[in-house]
Amino acid sequence: MAKMTHLMVDLEAMGTNPNAPIVAIGAVFFDPATGDLGPDFYRVVTLKSEFQMGAKPNADTIYWWLTQSDAARRAITEGERLHIVDALSQLTEFVTDYSTESGLNRLQLWGNGASFDPVILRSAYARCNFPEFWKYWNDQDVRTIVALGRVIGFDPKRDHPFAGERHHALADAIHQAQYVSAIWQRLLAPHQDQLSASALHAVYAAGYNHGHLNTADGIAYQNDVESEFEHRALEVIAETGTLRETK
Ligand SMILES: [Mg+2]
């Protein structure tokens, strides 16, 4: 099975600013097209190490944490806690162990908010002087998907109730991965024909690029080949449609 290239990340932090101290990191690979979950990651980070590295807390967020459940507060104050540098290095190791090099270039990093998890995580990697493992153009936003879901009548709060402990970074990440997948599938359901065409196209293009198909003529894979293939793929789909109708 192909490796998953979507990673949902949820951070618990002591601020909402880009350089907020991270106190827990949850992450899970997932496939939004199927809703399947892959390997997951969870580490708690010491606030002290984040202060040492120059992260800046926010008073409102500290007060907010004081009003959260005992379980949520215990999750970040008890048990094994790591220095932020170790937590980030282990997160990088977790992701690179699972991904191929080209997978890393395509790795979609999801967070609940265009201004939150990916931004705060990137800032943490920068203050720890450690290269981040994903490309900035692969940041993905849960909130945009939720807004699209509401437009088509799917509200995660109503249609996908939370199971587990709120504000636990891994439970949050898993929950978000599940409802993003649920909305993704509803959004794409009316477009199955186009999806089959683009999947066939991707297979053909990969074969062509790797020299498995028709390379005797020495023509590199180009736009005309691409459009010719799209044409053929649409023919195949049309034939399949006809077969379905005649059944
Ligand atoms: Mg959370």
UniProtKB/TrEMBL annotation:
InterPro entries: RNaseH-like_sf, RNaseH_sf, Rv2179c-like. Pfam families: Rv2179c-like. Residues 5-184 form the 3'-5' exoribonuclease Rv2179c-like domain. It comes from the Bacteria. One of its GO terms (molecular function) is nucleic acid binding. This is 3'-5' exoribonuclease Rv2179c-like domain-containing protein.
